[in-house]
Amino acid sequence: MKINKSFAERINYIRETELQSRAHSKKIVYWEEDSRLRSEQGKALVFILPTRGCSWALSKSGGCSICGYIYDNPQQTDFDSIYDTFQAILKNKLKKEFAYAIKIFTSGSFLDPLEIPEELQLKFTEELSKYEQIKEIVVESRPEYIKGSTLQKIAKVIDVSILEIAIGLESTNNSILMNSINKGFFWEDFEKATKIVKENGAKVKAYLLFKPPFVSEYDSMRDMLQSVKRIISLEIDTISINAVSIHRGTYLSQLFEKHQYRTPWLWSLFYVCKNIKEHFPNLRLICDIVAGGNMRGAHNCGECDQEVIQAIKNFTMSQNVDSLGEEISCSCKNEWKSNLLHEKISISEQVSQKYM
Ligand code: SF4
Ligand SMILES: [Zn+2]
Fold first, then answer.
1. Domains, the chain, ranges and CATH?
2. Which ligand sits closest to the CA of 334?
3. How far is it between the farthest Cα atoms of the chain?
């Protein structure tokens, strides 16, 4: 049993209500950003394709407790227009002088045939093979859609060694996956999917989630360290730590609105990155902070937020732990430290009443 039934029922109740106000936009969203490629600094061209969205979020289990991406996915998709726009953007935006990572996201799973039919998965990836400046291709997928047969077909149209499949593992702790996130899969499923990706010559990136509900800041810091160790044992060289931000229409947003959840402290991320990189210097460690400095994202006191965010960004780009080496000082550091202790106590009280 990979779900906690009463937790999943509560999430699904919220989901079904909120899905009534789902988006209708069918436009591709895209942007360009600086990016840390495996061997150099470069650019990333990021696409969000308007597919029907994550099948797990649309299932009777309600999807993940923290995720509201599904509300931005349209109910109808128009693949002809998506593909034409995708082609045109690549043609107009890719410059010869830069090395690029192309990230094709769907707010779900690129390899889920209900989101993108298999022949279109191949068409999208094949289009990328026309551009020499593309050094990395990143798609996201839940483990259950990662199949050897699919990867073998993709390997016929692109150099599969530049393909990275990003999996939102979030934690290697099955209890967190089941009771905090409602992820619907376990560490062992991730392990199996990783094996398939590697056997077929592609790469895996793991996303970890910093501070899901019912896990205190301190325990989440410990969980990040333990999870990184376990992931590295599978010879995965890229891990992205994503700090929770509050998505509307989610189980977590209800906790947040009832003042039963505080978004992560930037200090915690700062020290988690520092600690991990010092222990695993060869790991490409990315830390993604959405809505940083904002109450709905990772934040400190307001005075030091931008400085800490910038230090973490510099670190992600350079992979040089010295970017985090200089002590940034602010009086809120003491508050953060005492919060690490007190939150642990209040969370254990919360857990006992959690599905009420
Ligand atoms: S976090 Fe990923 S798997 Fe979970 S509901 Fe969102 S898109 Fe789906
Ligand atoms: Zn501060």
1. 5-352 (3.20.20.70)
2. 2
3. 57
Q: Are strands 29-36 and 41-48 parallel, antiparallel or unpaired?
A: antiparallel
Confidence of residue 299 (pLDDT cuts 50, 70, 90): very high
Ligand 1: which atom is nearest the Cα of residue 66? 1
* Residue whose tokens read 């931008």: 306
Phi, psi of 326 (to 5 degrees): -70, 130
Is 0.70 surpassed by the pTM of this model?
A: yes
Q: Which residue has the tokens 């039934």?
A: 5
Indicate the SS3 state at residue 264.
Answer: coil
Q: What is the DSSP letter of 247?
A: P
Nearest to 139 by CA among 94, 93, 95, 107: 107
Which residue from 67, 171, 288 has its CB within 8 A of the most atoms of ligand 1, so it is best to mutate? 67
56-65 burial, b at 16+ Cβ within 10 Å, e below that, comes to bbbeebbbbb
Q: Cα 217 from chain centroid?
A: 18
Residue nearest atom 8 of ligand 1, based on CA coordinates: 54
Tell me whether strands 203-210 and 29-36 are parallel, antiparallel or unpaired.
unpaired
Percent of the chain with pLDDT over 90: 85
What does 187-234 look like in DSSP terms, one character per residue? HHHHHHHHHHHHHTT-EEEEEEEES-TTS-HHHHHHHHHHHHHHHHTT
Distance CA 191, CA 199 (A): 12
Cβ atoms of residues 297 and 243 within 8 Å: yes
Cα gap 198→234, rounded to integer Å: 10
Could you read off the pLDDT of 34-90 as tens digits, one per residue? 888 887 889 999 999 999 999 999 999 999 999 999 998 988 888 999 999 999 999
Which residues, including other chains, have CB under 8 Å from residue 2's CB and lie 6 or more apart? 177, 178, 183, 184, 185, 186
Would you state the structure tokens that stand for residue 28, as one six-digit string?
């591709």
